[in-house]
Design brief:
152 residues; alpha+beta; 6 helices; globular
Length: 152
């Protein structure tokens, strides 16, 4: 994935001012208070120790720095939840089998989404890691949510 990102950056003429680092979200290879923002999209769900990763995000952020986390979440609308559940468990793995020849990975995707905390519980975990002014915004009825928090 990192190599794909490098190729895309080069294709867009972004060749300076970027550092490409592969690391562990639970033990980031950066000094304290060195970043203004920390973003993660569709990745925190797969971290083994999410609390450790959130604490690391807090550690590397400068005072006033912002965490933004985009992740699959829990659908908040009852009718949409029923449709989404049926689609997730019955259609997504089958599409993964047909397109990627890997039904099991897509079954894991659906199951990992269901095991991820709901929006309020995730917001509480972000607060527990030291972030303040924590908010979240549901997108598509809660299929996805963006959580935000600040190091104050």
């Amino acid at each position: 994935m990192l190599e794909v990102g490098k190729q895309r950056a080069r294709a867009q003429g972004l060749t300076t001012g970027l550092s490409w680092v592969q690391g562990n979200a639970e033990q980031l290879p950066f000094p304290d208070a060195c970043m203004d923002s920390y973003t993660v999209a569709f990745g925190i769900r797969n971290v083994t120790d999410r609390h450790a990763a959130l604490c690391e995000a807090h550690r590397v952020l400068r005072r006033g720095g912002r965490l933004l986390c985009l992740e699959f979440s829990q659908v908040s609308l009852p009718l949409l939840r029923q449709v989404y559940d049926a689609y997730s468990f019955n259609v997504i793995p089958k599409i993964g089998g047909l397109v990627a020849h890997d039904e099991a990975s897509y079954q894991y995707l659906v199951e990992s989404i269901r095991q991820f905390p709901d929006q309020e519980s995730w917001a509480d975990q972000i607060r527990d890691a030291g972030f303040r002014a924590v908010t979240h915004e549901n997108l598509t009825g809660g299929v996805v949510a963006i959580h935000s928090g600040f190091k104050l």
